[in-house]
Each structure stands twice: as C-alpha cells, then as structure tokens.
UniProtKB/TrEMBL annotation:
InterPro entries: Adapter_Engulfment-Domain (IPR051133), PH-like_dom_sf (IPR011993)
Protein name per the record: PID domain-containing protein
Ranges for region Disordered: 1-36
Gene3D superfamilies given in the database record: Pleckstrin-homology domain (PH domain)/Phosphotyrosine-binding domain (PTB)
Gene source species: Anopheles quadriannulatus (Mosquito)
Length: 223
C-alpha cells in the first residue's frame, strides 16, 4: 500500500500567555466552520485515528513558519517510502492533560505522552490540509540547545478531521490557561522565572489554509 498525501486549498489564532488570553478571528471564520469540527472543553478527551508522519527539529516555538518546512520534509519522505512500507497508524487522544499517541499497527504497543505544558503550538497545515502539526518542547530541554523543539506531524482522513483536531487542542490550551491563571491568583500573582514562563506560553492557529495564505500574501505585498 502506497502513501498518498495530496496538497489542497482549503480561523483566527488563539495566543495565550499565563495572565492573558486573546482570541482573534477573521470575519468569515464562523461561516467556514461547521458545528461538526467545533470542540469545547466538555468534549475532551477526544480521540482521532491518524497516521504518524514523524518528527523534525523546529526552529522556534510558535508560528506556521516553524512547521512548514518540517512538514514538507516529512511528506516528501512519506511519498518516497518503498511499497512494503506504510506510515504507522495511531490513536491520538487530546485531553485536558495533553496529547497521547498510541501506536495501533505494531505488535508491540507504543505510547507517547506530551503534557499540555510542553506543547507550544498547533496548526492545520497550509499546503497539506489533511496534516496536523504541533511543536513540542523537548523533555529536559536547554534553551542553549540549537533546536530544543520538535515538530510532530500527523495525516488525518480528511481536512475536516485535521481542523477538528486543531480545535480539540485549542480547547485543551484554553483549559490549561484558565488553570494557570487561577493558580497564580491563588499564589498572590507571584512571578516565575523565564524558563517556567516560556513553558506556559502557547498558540493555536485556527485560521483556515486559505486565510493563512491570504495573510501571507498581504504581508508580502505590504513589504
């Protein structure tokens, strides 16, 4: 069985810091998303059957500019797999605690857990719209490392599933942001060091691929 990943043409971003939550959406965003892809905190945990593309080093914590090239590389590798090799299937579960990835193709079950405070960014890819990508801070990372972050990418059955997965992670992020804020208020708003603060900042990009491309085009035109 060969692996086929086609690029397709297809909303706002949620950027969250410990003490603030800002939500920006494009004007036509609500019209583009059906209720089928919307996910709220009460819907978690929620599971998706996906194919794991793999991981690549990321050059930054937030933004599609740090996921695009890694996704291109992983898709290229997948397209050139030999006929007897296929991408591994896995169950990806988004919960309030983070993301759990359980392999369902190998004889030996493999489970990976990424806690919500180690995930810094999630997005439906701009070019390959069935691909969902997220940036994860490496365990025991050191900011002096050249690449302390990794991009993990997954192929969904449909564009709608990739979008729903993105909304699921957004719901988990929002719950985590609320818990962080409540904890800080309980502790009298005490500050935290740079490293801990870094791990509490994250972003989810809910723009559609078309909206992302339009924004990029407008930025290039203005430049």
């Amino acid at each position: 069985m060969s692996t086929k990943i086609s690029n397709g043409s297809g909303g706002g971003g949620i950027n969250t810091a410990p003490n603030t939550t800002s939500i920006t959406t494009n004007n036509n965003n609500n019209n583009n998303d059906s209720p089928d892809v919307q996910v709220t905190v009460k819907d978690l945990p929620i599971s998706f059957k996906v194919k794991y593309l793999g991981s690549q080093p990321a050059t930054g914590l937030w933004g599609i500019k740090h996921t695009r090239l890694p996704v291109d590389h992983l898709v290229s590798v997948a397209k050139n797999l030999p006929p007897n090799r296929i991408l591994p299937f896995c169950n990806l579960t988004v919960s309030l605690d983070g993301v759990k990835i359980e392999s369902i193709t190998s004889k030996l079950t493999s489970v990976s857990n990424f806690t919500i405070d180690t995930i810094s960014y999630g997005v439906q890819d701009l070019v390959y719209t069935r691909v969902f990508a997220m940036i994860v801070v490496k365990e025991n990372y050191n900011l002096k490392e050249k690449n302390p972050f990794d991009v993990h990418a997954f192929v969904c059955d449909s564009r709608a599933m990739a979008r729903k997965l993105t909304f699921a992670l957004a719901a988990s992020f929002q719950d985590y942001s609320k818990r962080v804020k409540e904890a800080e208020e309980k502790n009298g708003g005490s500050g935290c060091d740079t490293e801990k603060s870094l791990r509490k900042k994250f972003a989810i990009d809910l723009r559609t691929p078309e909206e992302m491309q339009q924004d990029i085009t407008e930025q290039e035109t203005e430049a």
